[in-house]
Specification:
Substrate binds at residues 39-40, 61, 156. It holds the Pfam family AA_kinase. The protein is built from 9 helices and 14 strands. It has helices at 10-13, 16-28, 40-49, 65-89, 128-136, 159-170, 203-211, 219-231, 245-249; strands at residues 2-8, 32-37, 56-57, 60-61, 94-97, 105-109, 121-126, 140-143, 146-148, 154-156, 175-182, 200-201, 236-241, 256-258. A hairpin with a 5-residue loop joins strand 9 (146-148) and strand 10. Helix 3 packs across helix 4 and helix 6 (159-170) packs parallel to helix 8. The protein is globular and about 45 Å long. The chain binds adenosine-5'-diphosphate and N-acetyl-L-glutamyl 5-phosphate. The site of N-acetyl-L-glutamyl 5-phosphate has 16 residues, from helix 3 and strand 4.
Length: 266
């Protein structure tokens, strides 16, 4: 099968018109597909309103018990169910899932190495059999950032990591493309200049741009996950603006394409 994994960022989800525009594009996107979402901005806002202050380290959330409750309600509840309802209205038979549903993503609580991230899960296993089954039955999984450890504990996992893990697991048997859609035109040299897109990025360029702090915060997990996906057999990885998803799918120039480092070619 040819499968597209499409991840939508919190900055798009947070604006109802932008989300609607994206979902109508997504609904028309050809072939088998999976939608992955987080909603970090909304979780921070809801948390703050409840007195649970957000704390991020390199784009990843420190997740204590109260934070876990908030992110579960926001990602696996509010956002996931709204997206599913909107897709149903577009005649797409979407099914909302967190990692515990159908044991689709099992993770393990991140061990403390310098930083204690709390209830953050590192992905261990993806139930590709169930995903194959759903896709073959024309169901469209909408997967959020909550995973589980199969011992009853929910865990918070970066949504970019979810997208990458789904892509790499499915790439063992299928041809998989991975699209990270967010609110900027791609990886930018100057974050404030939408025209400063870096069209192609490899690990050498990435290392240099991180040293210079051109790439920081949420872009770090996105790129770490993008390189990992390519290394593990994903066909094509793209980062760009949600409304340019179609251009990317048609191979037209837009956004940033992630390239395997030259050493991998030999
Ligand atoms: N070089 C860069 N180009 C574009 N965005 C960058 C760059 N470095 C850091 N960022 C930040 O990364 C953010 C995207 O990460 P994140 O907020 O996790 O994305 P998402 O919208 O997918 O949730 C951007 O909004 C931007 O603030
Ligand atoms: C562990 C961790 O960082 N989890 C993320 C999950 C949500 C997410 O990734 O949302 P975006 O895609 O909107 O950034 C978080 O709670 O922010």
């Amino acid at each position: 099968m040819k499968i597209s994994i499409i991840k939508i960022g919190g900055n798009v989800i947070d604006f109802p018109e932008k989300l609607d525009e994206f979902l109508s594009l997504f609904a028309k996107f050809p072939g088998h597909k999976i939608l992955v979402h987080g909603g970090g901005i909304m979780a921070s806002r809801f948390g703050e309103s409840l007195g649970v202050m957000p704390e991020m380290v390199d784009g990843r959330r420190i997740t204590d018990q109260e934070t876990l409750d908030v992110v579960t309600m926001v990602y696996a509840g509010l956002i996931n169910k709204n997206i599913v309802a909107k897709l149903q209205a577009l005649k797409v038979n979407a099914i909302g899932m967190c990692g515990a549903d159908g044991n689709i993503i099992r993770s393990i609580k991140r061990p403390v190495k310098g930083i204690d991230y709390g209830f953050v899960g590192d992905i261990q296993e993806v139930n590709t059999k169930l995903i194959d089954h759903l896709l073959s039955g024309d169901l469209l999984p909408v997967v959020n950032a909550i995973t589980h450890d199969a011992k009853g504990q929910l865990l918070n996992t970066n949504a970019d990591s979810i997208a990458s893990a789904l892509a790499t697991s499915l790439a063992k048997e299928h041809q998989v493309n991975l699209y990270f859609c967010f609110n900027k035109s791609g990886v930018l040299i100057d974050e404030k200049n939408e025209n400063s897109i870096i069209p192609l990025i490899n690990e050498d360029i990435y290392a240099e741009l991180r040293r210079e702090n051109v790439i920081h915060s949420g872009m770090i997990p996105k790129l770490d996950n993008a390189f990992e996906a390519l290394e593990k057999g994903v066909n094509h990885v793209w980062i760009g603006k949600a409304e340019n998803l179609y251009l990317a799918a048609k191979g037209k120039l837009s956004g940033t394409t992630i390239e395997r480092s030259r050493y991998d070619l030999y």
